[in-house]
Design brief:
The structure holds 2 protein chains of 2 kinds. By secondary structure, chain A is an alpha+beta fold. Chain A contains 9 helices and 21 strands. Chain A starts with 5 loop residues before the first strand and ends with a helix. Helices cover about 75% and strands about 0% of the residues of chain B. Classes of the chains: A alpha+beta, B mainly alpha.
Chain lengths: ~375, ~325
């Protein structure tokens, strides 16, 4: 990303409460017109980072630059960013119109300009008929759009959204994801979006910063983060994965052979590893294979005892155990011509040679990340 | 229910007597029987429909007996005329002159009452709002304790507390000596708060007593309405380019108006009818209408005039509350 046209830039930003470090040296920049997500489990520091950009929290050290200017100690009302709050925080004593007009009126714009801008925003969020209603008379999705309009009407350099869809139910959330994208394209303003929902981040964002325990683990496009995670945390948190611990048996520059803890051996193609993996013999590594990269068939591969099969419509989820008990899951296309495995069967799973991917270190919970309740709970 | 209430009122007020009373009693009895019978024979639907009235019954009976009945008898009394000083059962004669006497002879007391009560209400608002604000927004884990402290004075009798102020404000008491040492007596004289070096028996003392005694009634409703305000609304306002004072003026203050309204009523109404503060902290030149009513009732034994004064007081308070409600427009608030 070209930092020359960055709207928001975090320069080694750190936030500490007493001895607790909420954010460790966050260092990234967000480009103009970008839809940027900060993704991570609760307590990972994403909301604190957002609040620092908004100005509600001051960084302990480091600088925050807005349009190239250091705003680290500028109060929120003097920063040209606006926030869509988690529960929207609409003013209950004001009509939709007055809510949206709040910012422009604070800036002492004249009445015709205020009305023009508010009308424009009401059209963008398609709430033209609701201008005189009170927030309490609107549905959740409508309140959400009022909150958006109230922020966008100020033409901010960046719009900050704190879990904006968390209060909506699933169907509405999916519709609002598309609506948010549409609005962002229409107004062309940078959106910085905080969420704990990886699906939301993957579908909506141009780039994602994955955070965990106050650290930014990886910043990248959704495809890169999904296919080339830099750490075990990112691999487990984004999508589902089979994380198989092992040690490097040999490496000849082209491909690397890994002895899995379960006895099997996996060949990893050159370049299919995180940047921080050392390929010397004996290194403890984890082989990641996504469930959809596994298929039934060939003789060579991973032998598992099937424990469960779940029919999902277009696909079949197969869960089984390796000899050493490690759980593995595979997502297979449903094929009516073939007999589907049943619990108790022994099958061999194989994969394309480009599928296995190497990560540094061993995971806390080996095996499939989608069937391990503990690791899922820890991530939430 | 209506029949029952009217019956209770009329018998309680001694409105009916002899055979009429018997008739009234039997009508009430029949209505109770009919009510019970429909409840039992009408099945679930009827019983469900009647349930709210059943729940209202204790309240309606209580209010009929102890509020409506006395009110009615007082109204009758206010239009009666006494034959002699010791005529304890004056005849009901549509004596409207009681009202004109109340308004002409006691105009200064009425005016004083409303002015004192209004000033005390404004003062409690000025003192109570910042206090309630701090407890609600900055109280943190001490909120409950601080709120408890606001209610602590209630553990001592109202009368004792007012008498204690007598000692505090006495001519050689701590407050006056402190003011003299600080050389604040001259400016206070100029402001008409002190009078010839005294604090006692001045309007300021009476208003001060009213303010002190009714302050908790202002703080508690204010706290309730402030506590309900989501602090993120203030963040949102600041995010939308207002300063802290702008956020207060445009968001917090409008949202706390129901508390201001409730608190003002709870202070103004009892303060306007109060007689304790004027009696213990004031002088004959600061008597309020409450003192005059008490005087007419207990010393002059002029029940008709005292009743008429009470009705005038009630009417003026009701009107001023209605006007206030109209201007505050509280039903417009969420």
């Amino acid at each position: 990303m070209d930092t020359g046209d960055s709207v928001v830039q975090l320069d080694k930003v750190r936030k500490q409460y007493g001895s607790f470090v909420a954010v460790h040296e966050a260092d990234f920049s967000i480009g103009r017109g970008e839809f940027f997500a900060m993704l991570g489990p609760s307590g990972c520091g994403k909301t604190t980072t957002l609040k620092m950009i908004a100005g509600f929290e001051e960084p302990t050290s480091g600088r925050i630059l807005l349009e190239g200017e250091d705003v680290s100690d500028v109060p929120p009302h003097k920063r040209n960013v606006n926030t869509v709050f988690q529960q929207y925080a609409l003013f209950p004593h004001m009509s939709v119109f007055d809510n949206i007009a709040f910012g422009p009126r604070s800036k002492k714009l004249n009445d015709t300009e205020v009305t023009r801008r508010v009308q424009e925003m009401l059209d963008v969020v398609r709430l033209g008929d609701f201008a005189s209603r009170r927030p309490a008379q609107l549905s959740g999705g409508q309140q959400q759009r009022v909150a958006l309009a109230r922020a966008l009407v100020n033409y901010p350099s960046a719009l900050l959204l704190d879990e904006p869809l968390a209060a909506l139910d699933l169907k509405l959330r999916e519709a609002m994801q598309i609506e948010l994208k549409r609005i962002q394209r229409e107004v062309g303003i940078t959106f910085v979006f905080v969420t704990h929902d990886q699906g939301e981040a993957l579908t909506m964002s141009d780039r994602i910063a994955v955070m965990s325990e106050g650290r930014v683990e990886q910043v990248g496009a959704p495809f890169d983060i999904y296919s080339r995670p830099e750490s075990l945390f990112v691999a487990g948190f984004i999508g589902s994965a089979n994380l198989l611990p092992g040690t490097i048996a040999s490496s000849d520059g082209g491909s690397t052979r890994v002895d899995l803890a379960g006895g099997a051996q996996v060949v990893v193609s050159a370049g299919n590893s995180a940047d921080n993996v050392s390929l010397s013999v004996g290194t403890q590594v984890t082989v990641m294979i996504r469930p959809e990269q596994l298929s039934l068939g060939a003789a060579a591969g991973l032998s598992i005892d099937v424990t469960d099969t779940v029919f999902q419509g277009a696909t079949l989820r197969l869960v089984g155990r390796m000899v050493n008990g490690t759980e593995v899951s595979a997502v297979l296309p449903v094929d009516p011509q073939r007999v589907t495995p049943a619990p108790g069967d022994s099958v061999t799973l194989s994969w394309h040679q480009s599928a296995p991917y190497l990560l540094d270190g061993w995971p806390d919970n080996a095996g499939s990340t989608t069937t391990n309740v503990d690791s899922i709970e820890a991530a939430l | 229910m209506l029949v029952l209430a009217i019956g209770v009122v009329s018998i309680g007020a001694g409105w009916v007597s002899g055979t009429t009373r018997l008739v009234a009693l039997s009508v009430m009895l029949v209505s109770v029987v009919v009510l019970v019978w429909t409840a039992f024979m009408g099945g679930l639907e009827t019983r469900r429909a009647l349930a709210p009235y059943g729940l209202l019954k204790p309240g309606i009976l209580w209010l009929s007996l102890f509020f409506l009945a006395p009110l009615w008898s007082m109204f009758q009394m206010s239009l009666s005329s006494k034959q002699s000083r010791f005529d304890f059962f004056p005849d009901f004669t549509w004596e409207w002159s009681n009202y004109s006497t109340a308004l002409t002879d006691f105009a200064p007391q009425f005016t004083r009452s409303f002015v004192y009560a209004a000033v005390a209400t404004v003062l409690t608002l000025l003192i109570g709002y910042p206090l309630a604000y701090v407890i609600a927004f900055r109280g943190g884990k001490y909120r409950t304790i601080l709120l408890g402290l606001v209610a602590v004075p209630f553990f001592t009798s109202y009368l004792i507390r007012t008498l204690a102020w007598q000692n505090l404000l006495a001519d050689s008491g701590p407050v006056v000596s402190l003011l003299n040492t600080l050389r604040l007596d001259a400016p206070l004289e100029w402001l008409n708060i002190m009078d010839n070096g005294r604090l006692m028996n001045t309007p300021a003392a009476v208003i001060g007593g009213l303010t002190y005694n009714f302050l908790p009634f202002m703080i508690l409703p204010l706290y309730v309405s402030l506590e309900k305000i989501d602090v993120r609304l203030v963040d949102a306002a600041m995010d939308l380019y207002t300063t802290a004072s702008g956020a207060f003026r445009r968001v917090v203050l409008p949202l706390s108006l129901p508390g201001v309204f409730a608190g003002s009523l709870l202070v103004f109404i009892p303060a306007a009818g109060d007689f304790v503060n004027a009696q213990f902290l004031g002088s004959p030149s600061t008597t309020m209408v409450g003192n005059s009513i008490q005087n007419q009732f207990l010393r002059e034994l002029n029940y008709p005039l005292a009743s008429a004064m009470s009705f005038v007081l009630m009417a003026v308070i009701t009107c001023s509350v209605l006007v206030y409600a109209k201007f505050m427009g509280t039903d417009d608030l969420v």
